[in-house]
Amino acid sequence: MNKKYKKLLLSLLFDAIGLLSFSIIGIGEFSDIIWAPASAYLMTKMYKGKRGKIAGAIAFVEEALPIVDVVPTFTLMWIYTYVIEKKKEETIIEV
């Protein structure tokens, strides 16, 4: 399996972990205290540079705030990196 799809599987797993904390009433919001900085750290390790730092900050805020845990931040970042940016690169090359 190539690196791109490993990141996709990790993204789905990390988003599921974030969603689990949302689904456990009472304990869920407390677990976000631990998961929010962990998700930010993991995001910056998965995606390097400025893009990873911005995504890490977004992941932290998304996990720290109540109710928005349902947003699949890791998967959206994967789509941005490997689908949207790839299309931009292909368009630039074709011109």
Summarize the structure.
With 95 residues, the protein is mostly helical.
Describe the protein.
By secondary structure, this protein is mainly alpha-helical. It has one domain (3-94). Helices cover 83% and strands 0% of the residues. The protein has four helices and no strands. It has helices at 3-23, 27-46, 49-64, 73-94.
Strand segment tally: 0
Strand content: under 5%
Span between N and C termini? Answer: 32 Å
Shape: elongated
Secondary structure: helix percent:
over 70%
* Count of domains: 1
Query: Total helix count?
Result: 4
Structural classification: mainly alpha
What is the succession of H and E elements? HHHH
Low-confidence stretches: none
Mean pLDDT: 86
Radius of gyration: 15 Å
Main sheet summary: none
